[in-house]
Write a structure and sequence with these properties.
The chain is an all-alpha fold. The protein has a domain of 40 residues. The protein is 57% helix and 0% strand. It has three helices and no strands. Helix 2 runs antiparallel to helix 3. The protein is extended, with a radius of gyration of 16 Å.
Length: 91
């Protein structure tokens, strides 16, 4: 039986983790004293940038989590969701 291949989303998450670790390492080495809380990613609100469907779905998942954690209001959630859904490419 052949081994299961790694999904594209998993590769994206792994790359994002490595980039985040590298950024933290650079900040520590540079001696920066103010550390911004980067544990929770921010929603990309710039509507001019091109995002893949997978990235847009990750953003939608993020705003759902923020709504569940009550860090954003339902109105903000709806506005962001509509914006992100409108940017999904339909083939």
């Amino acid at each position: 039986m052949a081994a299961q291949r790694t999904s594209f989303e998993k590769l994206q998450r792994d790359r994002a983790k490595k980039a985040k670790q590298a950024l933290k390492r650079e900040k520590r080495q540079s001696g920066e004293t103010t550390v911004r809380d980067t544990d929770e990613p921010e929603v990309i609100s710039d509507s001019t940038g091109e995002l893949s469907a997978a990235e847009l779905l990750e953003q939608i998942e993020l705003i759902h989590k923020q709504l569940d954690d009550k860090t954003i209001t339902f109105e903000e959630f709806e506005e962001r969701k509509i914006d992100l859904m409108a940017r999904l490419p339909i083939d």
